């Protein structure tokens, strides 16, 4: 198969869909890899590094899209990239379609085979192995950026996240105890904050309670508790995920007026629409805004702040699935692996992932019988 990797063109996005070590694996499997020039320069991988790994270099993204059978990216394609996709071409990347109806329409119109990293499931059917590494990084970063924005000159309350003798630490409220929330809690506990995790899955509640063993409070999530807790919280982390679906708004706009001036809210879930009613996508160059004296941090590609670590972690997770698609073709690969099949979001101009269809209010088309036999 001819595998192509264009340079990411979203603002402040330096990750790359294929690092040289991944290229070498595809070449070892007998595939041809083409890279857009300078695709990896943001994380110090030169064109020469890719050539040494066995790739060929192309001068433009259009050449990549025109030639490749499968496109491997990091971020969802923007409009100009969608127009370069063609019928039957495989697109393997993060899509986050529930929050982006325009992108979904472009992908539907292209006729491509759109496979989303974020809905591929693990062997037990519960985990999301291609989302997990970015959720781990985003969760850990959320405390780092939250602590920074708590500083008074950034608009925060002016409370240090950790305690000092005689002074209370910051109160940190984490909405969601999945991979991102768990990693946020690990960082916050390590920085000696007063941490509360809210979760609704009872098995997950028990796991979190056992893991933190009193170092963090683990509470069943209900609206009443959230509305009371946010009034006394310095830093709120939104880390709720419903695979493929829009994230529910757990904090309404009217609640902001009850919160302490300078409270910081970090919305890890912004890719799927956000946990807070007042969330709107921001960038690394302009990451925050303030509403009712509450600081909002809603960067849609948080792991892009540490692109070398993020790209390597993502490549390690994605490569086995990408190689299966390249080795077997997408139909056979999905026939053999129902968890990879769960990544199929759009096929033949139709939405094949039910949560995405529901979120976008589009018709849902179950996957063809020859994929699920």
Tell me the distance between the termini: 25 Å
Described by strand count, sense and barrel closure, the largest sheet is: 8 strands, mixed
Number of continuous helical runs: 14
Which runs of at least 5 residues are low in confidence (pLDDT < 50)? none
Total of domains: 2
List the helices and strands and how they pair.
Layout: E1 2-5, H1 20-28, E2 32-36, H2 47-53, E3 56-58, H3 61-67, E4 70-72, H4 79-82, E5 90-93, H5 101-110, E6 113-116, H6 132-149, E7 171-175, H7 179-190, E8 194-199, H8 202-212, E9 217-220, H9 223-229, E10 235-238, E11 264-267, E12 288-291, E13 294-297, H10 307-328, H11 330-336, H12 338-341, E14 344-347, E15 350-351, H13 354-360, H14 369-372
Parallel strand pairs: 1-2, 1-4, 2-3, 4-5, 5-6, 7-8, 7-10, 8-9, 10-11, 11-13
Antiparallel strand pairs: 6-14, 12-13, 14-15
Helix pairs in contact: 1-2, 6-7, 10-11
Provide structural commentary.
The protein has 14 helices and 15 strands. It has 373 residues and is an alpha/beta fold. The strands form two sheets. The protein has an eight-stranded mixed sheet with strand order 3-2-1-4-5-6-14-15, sandwiched between helices. Strands 9-8-7-10-11-13-12 form a seven-stranded mixed sheet, covered by helices on one side. Strand 12 and strand 13 form a beta hairpin.
């Amino acid at each position: 198969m001819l595998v192509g990797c264009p340079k990411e063109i979203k603002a402040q996005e330096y990750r790359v869909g294929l690092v040289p070590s991944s290229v070498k694996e595809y070449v070892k499997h007998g595939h041809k890899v083409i890279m857009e020039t300078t695709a990896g320069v943001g994380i110090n991988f030169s064109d020469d590094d890719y050539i040494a790994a066995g790739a060929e270099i192309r001068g433009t993204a259009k050449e990549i899209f025109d030639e490749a059978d499968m496109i491997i990216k990091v971020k969802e394609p923007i409009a100009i990239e969608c127009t370069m996709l063609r019928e039957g071409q495989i697109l393997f990347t993060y899509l986050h379609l529930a929050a982006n109806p325009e992108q979904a329409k472009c992908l539907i119109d292209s006729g491509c085979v759109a496979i989303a990293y974020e809905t591929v499931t693990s062997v037990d059917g519960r985990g999301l192995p291609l989302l997990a590494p970015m959720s781990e990084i985003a969760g850990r970063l959320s405390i780092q950026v939250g602590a920074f924005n708590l500083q008074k000159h950034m608009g925060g309350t002016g409370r240090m996240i950790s305690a000092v003798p005689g002074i209370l630490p910051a109160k940190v409220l984490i909405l969601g105890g999945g991979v991102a929330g768990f990693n946020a809690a690990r960082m916050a506990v390590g920085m000696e904050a007063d941490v509360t995790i809210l979760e609704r899955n009872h098995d997950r509640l028990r796991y979190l309670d056992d893991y933190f063993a009193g170092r963090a409070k683990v509470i069943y999530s209900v609206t009443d508790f959230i509305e009371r807790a946010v009034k006394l919280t310095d830093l709120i982390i939104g880390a709720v995920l419903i695979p493929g679906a829009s994230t529910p708004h757990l904090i309404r706009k009217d609640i902001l007026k009850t919160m302490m001036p300078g409270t910081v809210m970090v919305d890890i879930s912004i890719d799927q629409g956000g946990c807070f009613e007042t969330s709107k996508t921001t960038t690394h160059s302009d990451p925050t805004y303030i509403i009712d004296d509450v600081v909002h941090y809603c960067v849609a590609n948080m792991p892009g702040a540490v692109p070398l670590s993020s790209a390597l972690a993502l490549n390690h997770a994605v490569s086995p699935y990408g190689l299966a698609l390249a080795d077997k073709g997408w139909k056979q690969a999905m026939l053999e692996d129902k968890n990879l099949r769960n990544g199929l979001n759009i096929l033949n101009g139709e939405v094949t992932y039910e949560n995405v269809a529901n979120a976008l209010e589009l018709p849902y088309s179950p996957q063809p019988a020859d994929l699920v036999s």
